[in-house]
Amino acid sequence: MDVKRFFHNCLEVRETPEGLLPIRFTPGQMQYYQQLNEMSGIRAKCTAGVALSFVTSQRRLAFHFKAAQFCRNWITFDLWENGQFTQSVRFDGAVARGEVAFVRETKGEKTITIYLPYSCEVRLSGFDFGDARPVEDARPVLWTIGDSITQGMESEYPSFTYAVSLARQMGYRLLNQGVGGRGFADSCLDADPGVEPAVITVGYGTNDIEAAAQDWEGFAARMNRLLVNLRQRWTEAPVYCLSPFWRSDLETQQRQAVFEKIGEEIQRQAEKTGCRFVEGMDLIAHQPEFFGDRYLHPNALGFTQCALGLAGQMTSPK
To answer: Does the pLDDT value for residue 318 go beyond 60?
Structure first.
C-alpha cells in the first residue's frame, strides 16, 4: 500500500523519519516565507486544505501524527464517508504526538476522505486503513491565494473553510496557499507552482490597512503587480479578487475609511487587469456569531456562507 498516493491537495509528500510530511508550497515559495519572518514560515508549513482520500471496507481507521509549527492551539481531523461529513477528532492544546482513530458509521466499501488541520504542520505514520486503495483525482484545480482567512482560521473544522468548501461545492481539486498575516505581494508566486490552475481566487486586503494608510501608492502597486503576474502567467484561468470581509474591530473612522478604500482599490485593480471582482462585504453576515474570534476570522458557519456566496459567482469546471 503506497500511502503517499492517498494524499491530495498538496504539491509534495516528503518521507521523513517521523512520518509522511505533506507540503503545499514549492521550495522557492517556502524559502520566501521562511526568510520573510518566523510567523509566515510557521503558517506556510501548516497543512491547510490537505486531505487523505482512499477507498476501503475497514470500519476502524487509524494513524499516528507528530505535530509542530502551531499557529493555533488545537489540532482537528475531519472524516468524510462517501461525501458526507460524519465525525471529527480534536486535540486541544499544542499536542505534539497522538493517534487519530475513527470508527466509521457506514459499512462496506466506501470512499473515505480525512482532512488534515490548518493549524499546524503534521507528519503522519502508522496507517491502519485495511484493504485501502487510492482515489485518483483528475479534476481541474482551484488555487486559493490569500491570508489567514484563506488558510482557514478560525473554523472549528478543517473541512469547513471557504477554500475547502468552495472546491467541494464546485467540483475542483484544491491547492490552498493561504498564509496567515500576509498582504498583497507578488513575491508569493513561483514561476512554476507545480499545478496548472483552472481558476484562481485572491483573498488579501484586511492585513494591508496599516501599510496602505502609510503608503497608498505602494499598496496599489503591489496589488497591481500580483494581479498582472497572475493574468499573464495563467491566461486561461479566471482570477477572482475578493475584497475583505466584514470585521467588527474598525474602531476609528480613519481605519474604517482605509478599509473601505482598500475594497474600492481591489475592485479598480481587478477591472483594470481583467480579473473578476467579488465584494467580500456581501459574503458573510455582519454578525459576531459568524466569526470564530467574534470579530475577524470566520467560523464554520461563516465560511459555509462565504463558500455558497462565492460559488454563486463562479464558473463550474467543464
So the answer is: no
